[in-house]
Structure formats: structure tokens, C-alpha cells
Amino acid sequence: MGKKVRIGIDVGGTFTDAVVIDNDTYEVIAKKKIPTTHKEGVAVGVVSIISCLMEEQGIQPEDVVFIAHGTTQATNALLEGDVASVGVVGMGTGLDARSAKNETNVGDIELAPGKYLKTSHCFLDSKQVAADTIQGAIKELLGAGAQVIVASEAYSVDDPSRELMVQEEAESQGLYCTGGHEISQLYGLKMRTRTAVVNASLIPKMMETANMTEQAVIDTHIQSGLMIMRCDGGVMSINEVRKRPILTMLSGLAAGVAGALMYEKISDGIFFEVGGTSVDISVIKNGKVMIKYAQVGGHKTYLQSLDVRTLGVAGGSMVRVKDGAIADIGPRSAHIAGKEYECFQEEGAMDGGQVTFVSPREDDPKEYVLVKTPDGREYSLTLAGAANLLGYVPEGDYARGTHQCAKAAWDSLGAYLGCTGEDAARRVMDLALDKLEQVVDELIADYELDRKFITLVGGGGSGAVIVPALAERMDMRWKMAKNAPYISTIGVALAMVREQLERTIANPTEEDIKKIRRDVIEKIVRSGANEATVDVTIEVDAQKNILRAVATGATELRQKDLTAVDLKPEQLAQISADALGAAARDVSCPAACGRWYVYEAVTKKKVLGLFSQKSRSLCVIDREGVVRLKKEKAEYLKFSKDQRTSVFLEFLDANTTFSDANATIPKVFLFYREKMLDLTGMQSAEQLTSMMDLEIEGLDGNEELIAVAYK
Question: What is the pLDDT of residue 186?
């Protein structure tokens, strides 16, 4: 039997990438890039790239233990308006009927300028829902041009029976159909209907691709089922994609940061996936990526996806000159103009060049700079060229170009503007950094990140074009992700299965929490996770009355520590000191259990220049050196499971804030074995202890845990 491998495939608009990764060491064994096969269908390219890699590497079908692919197809379909028309069967009764009729009639949804998702609508009184009324409603919607049906009823999250009747009838007529309760368990009929409509509009296209791609994989005789990347960084089985294709929307954005997290020991950071035309910027906090509700055509949905900010600043961004001065960088890129980069040519190719201007697209101003060489060839001045000229791109990096070419090309622009080439490059770089710094500042504020502790992480082929320069300007640490040009594809190959359930429940009971936990585990196992690897986090949003369960798991019995190396105590102390802004001699490790260490720092600050005030902070770090929690004014407790009802409850009580109105419990994390349990969403001591009992029931009585509490 050969070496066990994982295969990741990333289908982009221009190229289809694939990587083969050793399942034991997580090293990249092979990588390949081919043009995406649009005319023949993406599945043709997928099977071609898999077959080539397997043949070149001598991989047998039984050696492949995991295969997944990320696709931009759902996103592209929405952007291009290549979606099915949707008919909505709205339902409600009594006093709610009028509002339900309005809220299920979502109208046409604008996906992009001039591109619409067309909908038609009919409404049934829930008390009169029967086979003949459903048939009549579907007939009416088909007459209005509907290709796919959505069933959406007020309060269907509590009782989906009538939505299921509509789905059953539609499917008996050979139609695709989805119910609002399948997409979200949250109240909010309008948003649930809209999310279901977007999902339904994608089903025919995604079914066609899913079936072709699945067959392509079957034809290679690979036994492990094909998994598909989700927009929140996880994967799910292809059967789940057929029901909920909306979850693959924006999945390309999620794959890169998922790959970076697997390889890089990042606690708090900002990840930049930089291509030729744009950069996707996302946040990592406490070792996790940040998630929010996605918008489609300016409308909010119940789709949870990575919080990604996209800017038209990247390696191929072109320089704009207006009225004899540099005016801007981008948004057009060399790719859109159909020109080669100036910095990736052979030495001497740029000599004697003269500045000329172009409109990359018909309605663009003729302000974009090209350099025309004596032999009549035209090359684009790019941000990559500026970064190479200014010395930001490290030796050996994918974006490293020919310095002499960059200098000659930018000297041509300098001569045109009456300055040096370096001055022109600096001006362009500053314009790019102004845009990037603004977004980074917004993310730092939104997620309350500690500037002293952030690492900027570069991914994609052009990561080094912007990350070193931005880190220099903002005085932050930076690194390039390992295998940066293929980081998205690696993220697909290494992804975990992920599922989420949300329910509208005010003051959830112990039974509510147990039920949503059971349901999300059942759901993630259906999506392909091995139950023994599943972790569940429960969150209670008291302001919005939302109970949320997030489950992650692996597709086989193995955790994702990625050949992590245990660090020595002095190394852990130094990392913790850096995190806490203290000297290594001023940190101590008062508690440890499982993979976890608590480090504490006490620092003195002068107040008004007169007297010293002590400040105490702590962090929890794992044995591989990833800081998973960092807080000022936090308390910790090491205790055994048997002390849960005595010592721990006393600790919880001591950190609870009491007022005349109520008692406010602290935010609590538990650390034990390999597990970090986030209990910060719990609103009462009863909820917290109930959740805790569920999670630690498998521990022996004398096993130790660490609790960290803060207000």
C-alpha cells in the first residue's frame, strides 16, 4: 500500500489548481495548474488534473483518503446573473397572514448592475394547504416562468410540515424545491425567504456541475467521497451541496485563510490573499477566522461566511497618471489590459522605453500607464514592479522579478514626470498602502484586536507585493504563508467539515441547549464528519434571542495539529511575554494541563509620573506556541472534574457581578486535554454548568481543567 494522500482542487475563473498533500506529514508532494475548462465544463478540467497528478506521482485510487474542491461557480453565477427563476409559495394564517404575504414576496433581487434574480409569488392560507391548493399554486408559478420552487411559511422553523408538503409535491412533478426551514432555523421570515430564494436559484446549475464532478471523481476510482468547500472555511459532502448550494458561495475567499491557519501558528492576525487584480483581507482572532452574515445584491441573508474585505489593489494593479502627476493605482490590472508585467521580463527588455497610455476597457479613462519599448512592445507598469524596485519582495518569492527591468521601466515614468523612478514607485506604493491601511484599521476596530500582537500574513501569488511594505508602515510583524501561491488549494485539501445551526429562542433552557447540540452533531455527520472528531461550540446571543451551535470535525480519526512540534518552556515563555508586552523574566507559568499553559505577567506603569500602578494580564498558550486567549484583568482556576460543584462554582460566584436587578456571570473559557471550550455565550450559571457537564462527562473525576474568567 502506498503513502496516504489528500487532494485539493481549486477551480478559479482563469486557472484550476490542484495539490497533493501527504496525509501524515502535511507536506505538499505535488502541485499543478491548468487553464479552467469553461466550454467543456469545469468537471473535464477537474478529472484531467486529478488523473495527471495521480499518474505523475504513482498514486493509486485507494491511497487517496480525502478529496475536496473549492469552486467560484456559485459566486460567478450570482455576479453574472446566470441563475434560475424562482417561484415562492408563501404561507401564513390569521393575524400574521398579511405580514407573511408581504415578507414572502421578495421581488426581483439585483445581483449586479442590470442582472436580476427573477421571482414570482403566490400565497396560501396555512389552514387551507392541501394537495389541490399546492398543485394550483405551483401551476400558477410555472405559468409565471418559475423554474425552481421555494416553500416559505411563517414559523416553519417550529413546524415545517406544510413546507414539506409543498416540497414533496414539487419534487413529484420533477421540479427542484427548497424550504425556508432547511436554510435557516431563525425567525425572520423575509430574510429566511430571501436566503432560500438565492439558494434555490443556484440549484439547477450546481446540480449539473455537482453530478458531473462527482462522476469525474468516480471515474478515477477514488473511494473517498468528494467534499466541497463552504463559505465559512469548512467542507461538506456533495449530497449536501445539492440541497444547499448557497453555502459554496464565496468559498474561494475562505479557502486561503483556512490554508494559512493550518500551516501558520497565528493567534491574532490579518490575512491578505493577493492575486493579480484584487486582494481579499480577513481577520484571525484567538486562532479562529471571523464570520458574519453575507450580503447578496446589497441584501442581508442568513448565509454565514468569512468576513472578507476586497480591494482592487494587487500585484498587477496599473498606475494612473492625470495632468502630469500620478493620480491613482488600480482598479484595472495588467490582466484586464492584456499586457505583461514590466518586472517579469528578461534583463534589458525595458531599456529605452517610453511612457504611453491606454484605456483597459472602453469606458475607462486613457490614464493607465504602459511602457513602449523601441521594438514596439508594450508592457504594463504594475504595483509588483514598484514593490520589486523598492526592495520589498524577498529573494526566491513567487512575485520576485528582475530588478533591472523594474528600474528601467519606472525610470521611464520618472523621466515623464520629472522625478526618479524610485520616487514614482514610492508615490504609487504609498497610494496603495493608504487604501490597505484604512481597511486594516477598520478590521482592528471592528474586532478589537491588539495592534502590538497582530501579524500580517501574506498569501496568493502577490502577497509579498503588499504585506512587507504595509507591515513596515504600520510597524507590525509579518510573514509569508508557506506555499503562498497555492494556499487556497492547500486550504481545500486540509479543510475540516463544518456545520452550524441557529434558532430563535429567548432564554434557552438546558434541554434547548442539549437539543441543538444533538441536532448539529447529526447534521455534521451527514455532511461527512467522523463523529469522534466533532467539537461543538454553543453561543447564546441574548440581544437577538439567537441560540447558535457551531460544529467542526475531521473526515477521519485524526486531529489537525499538522506535524506540530512541542516547544520548550523558555520558548513558550518568550512567545507569551511578546503577547503580553512584557519581558520574558516578568512572566510566570502558574498553571498547566493537557496541551495548555497559563502564563501571567505583572507590569508596573507610572501614573501621572508620580506613583506606580501594577497591571496584571494573562494568556493561554498551547504546546505548539499558539496563543489562544489573551486578556487583561482575567482570573484563572485549576481544578479537577470532581471539584466542579464546589471549587469551580465558588470561582464562578467570585467573578460574578451582582446588582439589584440580576447577576451577570463572567465570560468563561475551559481548557482540558486537547480542548478549548468557549462558554462566553452563556447567560446564566445554570446554562454554563449545563453546557460544561455535557462536554466533560467523559472525563475521569480526577482529571484537571483550567478555567479562565473575565468581565
Answer: 84
Burial annotation 74-107 (CB, 10 A radius, 16+ → b, else e): bbbbbeebebbbbbbbbbbbeeebeebbebbbbe
Q: Give the integer Cα–Cα distance in Å for 84 and 557.
A: 40
Instruction: Estimate the crossing angle of helix 161-172 against helix 131-143, to 10 degrees.
Output: 60
* Of residues 241 and 97, more confidently modeled: 97
Reported as a single tens digit per residue, the pLDDT across 54-108 is 999 999 999 998 898 887 777 777 767 789 999 999 999 988 899 999 999 999 9
Q: What is the 3-state secondary structure (H, E, C) of 479-548?
A: EECCCHHHHHHHHHHHCCEEEEEEEECCCCCHHHHHHHHHHHHHHHHHCCCCHHHCEEEEEEECCCCEEE
Roughly what angle, to the nearest 10 degrees, separates helices 42-57 and 189-219?
Answer: 50
Q: Are 8 and 489 in contact (CB under 8 A)?
A: yes
Distance CA 392, CA 630 (A): 32
| Residue 1 confidence (pLDDT) | 43
**How many helices (H) and strands (E) would you count in the chain?**
19, 39
Q: Kindly state the cell numbers that stand for 349.
A: 527588455
Q: Is 354 helix (H, G, I), strand (E, B) or coil?
A: strand
Rounded to whole angstroms, the Cα distance separating 290 from 698 reads 30
Q: From CA 316, how far away is CA 380, in angstroms rounded? A: 8
- Distance CA(244)–CA(203), nearest Å, equals 8
Distances, alpha carbon 383 to alpha carbons 126, 343, 425, 439, 543, in Å = 59, 10, 8, 18, 45
pLDDT score at 560: 46
Residue type, 704: E
Could you tell me which residues come within 8 angstroms of residue 144 by beta carbon, excluding any fewer than 6 positions away?
87, 120
Residue 492 has pLDDT above 80, yes or no: yes
pLDDT surpassing 70 at residue 611: no
Q: What is the rounded distance in angstroms from the CA atom of residue 160 to the CA atom of residue 152?
A: 9
Nearest-Å Rg of the Cα atoms of the chain is 28
Q: Which amino acid is at 621?
A: I
Q: How many CA atoms lie within 13 A of 89 on its CB side?
A: 33
C-alpha to C-alpha distance for 330 and 344, rounded to whole angstroms: 19
Q: Answer yes or no: are the C-beta atoms of 307 and 430 closer than 8 Å.
A: no
What Cα–Cα distance (Å) separates residue 77 from each residue in 206, 249, 686?
Answer: 10, 9, 47
Q: What is the pTM of this model?
A: 0.77
| Contact (Cβ atoms closer than 8 angstroms) between residue 10 and residue 69 | yes
Overall average pLDDT of the 417-445 stretch: 96
Give pLDDT, residue 309: 85
Does 441 or 218 have the greater pLDDT score? Answer: 441
Stretch (H or E) spanning 358: strand 354-358
Strands (E), 142-191: 148-153, 176-179
Q: How confident is the model at residue 417 (pLDDT cuts 50, 70, 90)?
A: very high
Q: Does the pLDDT value for residue 557 go beyond 70?
A: no
- Cα–Cα distance between 328 and 347 in angstroms, integer? 28
